[in-house]
Amino acid sequence: MDKIIIHGGKRLSGTIPVSGAKNSALTLIPCALLTDEPLTLRNLPRLADIDGFQHLMNQFGVSTSIAGSRPEDFGRVMTFEATRITSSVAPYELVRKMRASILVLGPMLARMGEATVSLPGGCAIGNRPIDLHLKVLEAMGAQIEMAAGYVRAIAPDGGLPGGEFDFPVISVGATENALMAAATASGTVRLRNAAREPEIVDLCNLLVAMGAEIEGIGQSDLTIHGVKRLHGATYRVMPDRIEAGSYACAAAITGGEVTLAGARPEEMSATSHALRNAGVQVEAVKGGLHVAANGALKAVNLSTAPYPGFATDMQAQLMALLCRAEGTSVLTETIFENRYMHVPELNRMGAQIETSGRTAIVHGVAGMHGAEVMATDLRASMSLVIAGLAATGETQVHRLYHLDRGYERLEEKLALLGADVERVGGD
Ligand code: EPZ
Q1: Cα(173) to centroid of ligand 1, in Å?
Q2: Integer Cα distance of 5 and 8 in angstroms
Q3: Which of 45, 130, 132, 162 sits most deeply, having the most CB atoms within 10 A of its CB?
Q4: Does 22-236 carry CATH code 3.65.10.10?
Q5: 3-19+239-424 topology per CATH
Q6: Residue 197 CA: which ligand 1 atom is closest?
Q7: Could you report the per-residue pLDDT of 92-104, keeping only the tens digit for each?
């Protein structure tokens, strides 16, 4: 397994491109199931999860092609053609490796009138139930059966009549499954308290480009008027606001300054607000976001929340930054029950963090030292990299496959900014 070796203390500076958003790509790709015409997605990030989803789509008989791109390019253009679906089953051996596979349930059900998906199971950050995915599909008229670790959804007479659903908990994935299933329902679907993340807006924009009729895009209440069929489209994936926020924290902890080309400041308000409160300069510039710090960081108190609140996916990265702040910060993780896996590893690097349930108390320290650390989940891994960039000495982050799921060519982007970083294989 690969690891990354960082020699900390280098001030990051320069400009890097922001890649396409992983959490948008993973819901745009299954939209290909909704039409027998080609769906071309531009700006897809080169990530393990995208490769995994391509393999899953091939499993259904969907043909995929990658447009020529030079090795030095960031991002890829991929075309998915679901002319014929030869299987409506997402098997355990694929789903267990990538829980986002559950996002084929809604579109496969809409296209084929039935879908069978292995239950994704939990992951490092929580048990990740899918009850809301199933309830919202039932509200549209689907029948749901569970057997032998699989969920099977069936549309009566092959089509979904439509209906209404009020989400008791805001769920990004369940909102995405609902939108994809509702697009070709025979009636109207009304969703209340739906997720409003930019990735949901990206999905709505793609579905509309394919011929769907959706009202309230960007709001909590969505109305989808089902249409008979959707056509193919060519669509550019939005930039990754979490990747951009992660590099902003990396620049800030080194007292550096970085321009994040392609970032959308309007989608990063909560992150920008938190960074400004920590004493970091953040400003929108033409075509992106400029972040600068002078080394003096201030403590920040915040809770994670659904969009437009502070993203849970940014909590670990901000915590790494706050380890070097003057004073004590209090962070509360309200979305997932086990999202402090980075804390023991940060403390091994000299941080002083205590956790109690959903709350983490971060006592700022004057300096941290490099160490051999273990990545546990995607965002926790990035927080260890961020800490290593400003720690004295050498940090080795093991189990790099976690990072490869969400950060396109991480070490190349860090090297572009002047970091002393090297990927080493086979530990
Ligand atoms: C998406 O996960 C993202 N993943 C996550 O990013 C992100 O952290 C999360 O949304 C919240 O923003 C992708 O988009 C691929 P949820 P998702 O359904 O859809 C509970 C990363 O690091 N819930 O919004 O699985 C759930 O337990 C990843 O990039 C139910 O109770 O998240 C959680 O407490 C990690 N029942 C809360 O809702 C359900 O049926 C929010 O989960 C579904 C969710």
Answers
A1: 6
A2: 10
A3: 45
A4: yes
A5: UDP-n-acetylglucosamine1-carboxyvinyl-transferase; Chain (3.65.10)
A6: 12
A7: 999 988 889 999 9
